Amino acid sequence: MEVLKIATAGSVDDGKSTLIGRLLYDTKSLTDDKLEAIERNSKKKGYDYLDFSLATDGLVAEREQGITIDVAHIYFSTKKKSYIIADTPGHVEYTRNMVTGASQAQASIILIDARKGVIEQTYRHFFINNLLRVKHVIVAVNKMDLVDYDQQVFENIKADFEKLNAQSSYDEQQITFIPISALKGDNVAKKTNTMSWYEGVSVLDYLEDLKPEYDELTAARFPVQTVIRPKKDEFHDYRGYAGKIYGSSLKVGDAVTVLPSLTSSKIKTIEFFDNHYEEAVAGSSVSITLEDEINVTRGDILVKSDEVPQSSKTLKAAVCWMDGKVLVPGAKYEIQHNSNRILAKIDSIEGIIATDYSGEDTSKNQLSLNEIGKVNFKLSKNLFYDNYADNKAGGSFILIDTQSNTTAGVGFIG
């Protein structure tokens, strides 16, 4: 079944938890004990309705206890698709959490309180989606029931957001505006008659018809996670390379080049357990064998021979800094690009990128926690990479502190 990954963003009290709870309830994805707990706690609070925000209360409680949950993942399914929602906090001090949640998303839901309209945090949420090239954005104008389902309120917020969109790289077709009431269920899982002036679809209907972003990528990339060498005598000469395909599909007979060695061969077989395939599409985890006995190790990347990416010992990237220790020129880190690690030195920091589209601050030459900046690197050896806008897997990396072995930052090339 097709899986769609969604990131959510919203300020405190915009109704993000209620929206997620409503989706779980309307798709019958809540367990009986969870539903009973929601009903019981709603009555205890004196509500005459079900408080669906309680569906994620356990996660909130864990955060309040100091347990580290950078991103909460919530799963549900319909007959057409499976969904993974990355629920992230929206405050500026959690920018790194938002980046983590949105980095794998194929679509995003940005909530706006109909009473408040577009606010500062809306700018930040949209900026991060733009930075991470999340292909499809739903702007859900929530709490329409509290403004009497007034069409003009919705249109005013839409107009304000379109002014913001004019500063981004999105076109109008990538942004979808939906007026909703997460509490009442209006236009969440299905359309209701409360806003007859709205001619579009519900949030769930939109997601059901959405094609995952990886279907639209072109260059095939196969980072090798492990080399398979069975110890049984009958497979003495077997040498398979296991990993996940990104970009477009790979077929038996395709001419491929191994990076970084630039040696070439052709795909002999594509396998998954005992099954053999003539073709494997993006998102497939498979084992590949080659016609020639060439050296391939973990960290290498197989690409089609006519789709070899660019390579360089220098790199420029937008970096979201996730460490309490500031990033300064001259510091050394390891870049992990797919399963490949390369030693890198910070050559320079060009400036801090404002997440409200107000520009860059070029007066600073260091990055602090949750800041996003343009960083230049010098690498110990050539790195083969894609621009992030063309291929997310080939255009992103994490920075690893070599002393603590912690993830200190995440970078987006191009």
Automatic annotation (TrEMBL):
It comes from Leeuwenhoekiella aequorea. Pfam families: GTP-eEF1A_C, GTP_EFTU. It is an enzyme of class 2 (transferase). InterPro entries: CysN_GTP-bd (IPR041757), CysN_II (IPR044138), CysN_NoDQ_III (IPR044139), G_TR_CS (IPR031157), GTP-eEF1A_C (IPR054696), P-loop_NTPase (IPR027417), Small_GTP-bd (IPR005225), SO4_adenylTrfase_lsu (IPR011779). Residues 1-218 form the Tr-type G domain. Keywords: ATP-binding, GTP-binding, Nucleotide-binding, Nucleotidyltransferase, Transferase. Its EC number is 2.7.7.4. CDD domains: CysN_ATPS, CysN_NodQ_II, CysN_NoDQ_III. This is sulfate adenylyltransferase. One of its GO terms (biological process) is sulfur compound metabolic process. GO terms for molecular function: ATP binding; GTP binding; GTPase activity; sulfate adenylyltransferase (ATP) activity. The keyword Metal-binding does not apply. SUPFAM superfamilies: EF-Tu/eEF-1alpha/eIF2-gamma C-terminal domain (SSF50465), P-loop containing nucleoside triphosphate hydrolases (SSF52540), Translation proteins (SSF50447). The keyword ATP-binding applies.
